[in-house]
Amino acid sequence: MTIKDRRAALEEPYLRWRCERNRLLDAAAFIDDDTAYQLRLSTFLSAMRNMHLALEEFMALSRHERRSSDVQ
Asked: Is pTM beyond 0.85 here?
């Protein structure tokens, strides 16, 4: 695996995390609006869960990269 491939593998979960963070911020901005409260809360919680999953994947890939570079 080339350095470019490794960087791309790490970048994908990070970009997904940023996308979910933006969804989270959008949902949080309107959470006081009673008419869309349930929908916004659902979006907020979904974005939080997806951010967590993307961050876990990013951290796992980062740890794997560190171990790979330590071995070489």
From this structure: no
Please list, in sequence order, all residues whose beta carbon lies within 8 angstroms of the beta carbon of residue 40, skipping any fewer than 6 positions away: 27, 30, 31, 33
Please give the structure tokens belonging to residue 32. 């006081």
Question: Could you report the per-residue pLDDT of 1-13, keeping only the tens digit for each?
Answer: 677 777 777 788 7
Q: Which of 4, 13, 27 is nearest to 61 (CA)?
A: 13
Q: Which residue reads 């869960």 in tokens?
A: 49
Which two three-digit tokens encode residue 25? 């911020």
Check: CB of residue 27 under 8 Å from CB of residue 44.
Answer: yes
Structure tokens at 7: 């960087």
In contact, 66 and 50? CB cutoff 8 Å? no
Contact 52, 20 (CB under 8 A): no
